[in-house]
Amino acid sequence: EFVIVNGEFIERSEVKIDMEDRGYQFGDGVYEVIRVYNGKMFTANEHLNRLIESGKKIKMDISYTVEEMKEMLNKLIQKNNLDLGTIYMQITRGTAPRNHVFPGDHVLPTFVANTKEAARPIENMKSGVKTILNEDIRWLLCDIKSLNLLGNLMAKQKAVEAGCFEAIQHRNGTVTEGSLSNVLIVKDGKVITHPADNLVLNGITRQKVLEICRNNGMSYEETTFTLDDLNAADEVFISGTTTEVTPVIEIEGNKVGDGTPGPITKKLQELFEKEIEKECGN
Ligand code: PLP
């Protein structure tokens, strides 16, 4: 299995990352996960642009261009013979003696990437998933895809311990997002999701779903909604790179609608599938 470390392709067992890498000690870095279908990356430009933007927001310059990163990642896919799976990549602020202060430009970022085989979440997409509600206790820069994921991990862990797939988070009664997904509701035929501000990650899948709505005459709105709106929704679904479009059929033990995936969610799943085929073939 090959991985990328700072532009070099090496065997995973050969990787040496210093224990004072700032990603390891501080979570001082940003990351992306890109889906691979048929050996091709899906929405790679969007993910890599967001990586560069996340870097800017923490004052970290990513020296690679989108094209350079795409070339490297495609080569990694080939070397590892990846057909269906994910690419994980992260960039940290590099290795320097532990100090809260940024180390300065002489310290180069550490870029790593690896691939993983992963099936599509067919069963969840078909049957839907159960969720819990959880207070969103994370920081106020959730638009940055930062390595600091403890808040997300604790939310996800709580969900799994309750026998659920995802935790729907809320701040003072306003629904924000999941632990690893965006949350969208359908009310009277309209798709509604939290605006892409500092309180949520502007998911690439979320953006794709809204683009699909736009191009297919389906009504949608990016606006905040409350827990009451969530509980009164006709349909609820989550979106994410690994979760794709997954129906939510239960929240805190209460059924969403009749407890089965709704028609608009199913239509969006179909149209999303077409987008995958368009970009990656079938
Ligand atoms: N929100 C959070 C907190 C996430 O970790 C993710 C990542 O998967 C998403 C939303 C969905 O983003 P994307 O569709 O870009 O994968």
TrEMBL record:
PANTHER family: AMINO-ACID AMINOTRANSFERASE, D-ALANINE AMINOTRANSFERASE. InterPro entries: Aminotrans_IV, Aminotransferase-like, BCAT-like_C, BCAT-like_N, Class-IV_PLP-Dep_Aminotrnsfr, D_amino_transT. It comes from the Bacteria. It catalyses: D-alanine + 2-oxoglutarate = D-glutamate + pyruvate. Its cofactor is pyridoxal 5'-phosphate. One of its GO terms (molecular function) is D-alanine-2-oxoglutarate aminotransferase activity. SUPFAM superfamilies: D-aminoacid aminotransferase-like PLP-dependent enzymes. Pfam families: Aminotran_4 (PF01063). Belongs to the class-IV pyridoxal-phosphate-dependent aminotransferase family. This is D-alanine aminotransferase. Its EC number is 2.6.1.21. It comes from Cytobacillus dafuensis (Bacillus dafuensis). Homodimer.
